[in-house]
Amino acid sequence: MLSLAQNKLIHVAKRELDLSDREYRHILNEVAGVRSSKALDSRSFRRVIETFKSLGFVTRDRMRNMRVEGGASIAQIDYIRSLWARYTGHSQKTRDHRRTLAAFIRKKFEEYEDCQDLIEIENTLDPRTAHIVIGWLKRMVDKNEKIRTQEPVGSPG
Q1: Three-class SS state of 114
Q2: Could you read off the pLDDT tens digit of each residue along the chain, which spans 157 residues?
């Protein structure tokens, strides 16, 4: 039986890979012979995670190792994600959050135009560019928050 952390990791991978429930259950069945992650044992869990990795899933530990020498820090990446969530109102756990943040970065920086997804962008983002993105996002968030706190036009003052 899986630990709570292992079960969470399986579902994080499902979400990060944007797998439909049907695709997810097909992988569980093909790789481990089960229909639910709750039925996985430690050996089948490792096989499923390896399959997810082969499809592009990157764990935080693996992400740290994959990041290019001199790349943006995990803290910078996390801060960018949280600022984008504040700006858009999307939870960081949604597809819209990842898709729109990736589109924003690709639009602002030509060198990221060919990146397929947010994970690829984050793995190649350099500290200077991350700093610039953080600056833009902070200003965008501040502007949004000022607009939200202003009195409506025409209200008695």
Answers
A1: coil
A2: 777 778 888 888 888 888 889 999 999 999 999 999 999 988 898 899 889 888 877 766 555 544 555 678 878 888 999 999 999 988 777 778 888 999 999 998 888 888 777 877 887 788 888 999 999 999 999 998 888 887 566 656 5
The secondary structure of residue 37, as a DSSP letter, is: G
Asked if 44 contacts 31 with a C-beta cutoff of 8 angstroms, the reply is: yes
How far is 49 from 28, CA to CA, in rounded Å?
10
Structure tokens at 134: 């953080």
According to DSSP, residue 112 is labeled G
Residue extents of the structural domains in the chain: 4-57, 66-149
Measure the CA–CA gap between 31 and 51, rounded to whole angstroms.
8
Residue 9: burial class (beta carbons within 10 Å; 0-12, 13-18, 19+): buried
